[in-house]
Design brief:
- By secondary structure, the chain is of the alpha+beta class.
- 38% of the residues lie in helices and 29% in strands.
- It is built from 5 helices and 7 strands.
- The strands form 2 sheets. A 4-stranded antiparallel β-sheet has the order 2-1-6-7. Strands 3-4-5 form a 3-stranded antiparallel β-sheet, with no helix packed on it.
- The longest helix has 18 residues, at 2-19.
- The radius of gyration is 15 Å and the shape is globular.
- The relative contact order is 0.20.
């Protein structure tokens, strides 16, 4: 279930960022602002690794020349210049990056984050997906939140 949930989260969020569709541009700006404003809290939880919390992920805008792409990293660690993550997907926009490659990034490159509150059985963060889901009819919105185990704070 956890793998399916992560795949769906990545599909919703990365697809929205990479598609160029202006449908949710304003909502995404607000969502990214919320994610960045709460990033210090996320990083504090990540560093402390409290019991009952796991599945830490960050959505990073990876840049190469004029191209950029949002990529989720769930295998990342602190590094001298910020962080580094191991690429576990094949980028769609940026060419020349390989699965398993280590990618450096800074906190400024992080546009969203999430982690699993295992005690509650819920995902926290993932602000961009929450923004996408808000366009659904209320009943479907609630159904998707329950299915994905996502907590969207308004």
């Amino acid at each position: 279930m956890k793998t399916v949930r992560r795949a769906l989260c990545a599909l919703f969020t990365v697809g929205a960022l990479c598609s160029g569709a202006p449908l949710h541009a304003a909502d995404h700006g607000v969502a990214q602002s919320k994610a960045r404003a709460t990033l210090p809290t996320f990083l504090s939880v990540w560093q402390q690794h409290p019991a009952g919390v796991g599945g830490y992920r960050v959505l990073v805008v990876v840049k190469q020349g004029e191209q950029s792409e949002a990529i989720w990293f769930d295998d990342f660690k602190a590094a001298s210049a910020g962080f580094q993550g191991i690429l576990r997907v094949t980028p769609r926009v940026i060419k020349g990056l390989a699965n398993g490659q280590t990618i450096p990034f800074t906190a400024a490159d992080i546009v969203d984050w999430s982690y699993e509150d295992q005690a509650a059985g819920k995902l926290r963060g993932n602000y961009l997906q929450c923004a996408d889901l808000r366009d659904l009819p209320k009943a479907e919105y609630e159904e998707q939140l329950d299915y994905l185990g996502l907590i969207c704070q308004d």
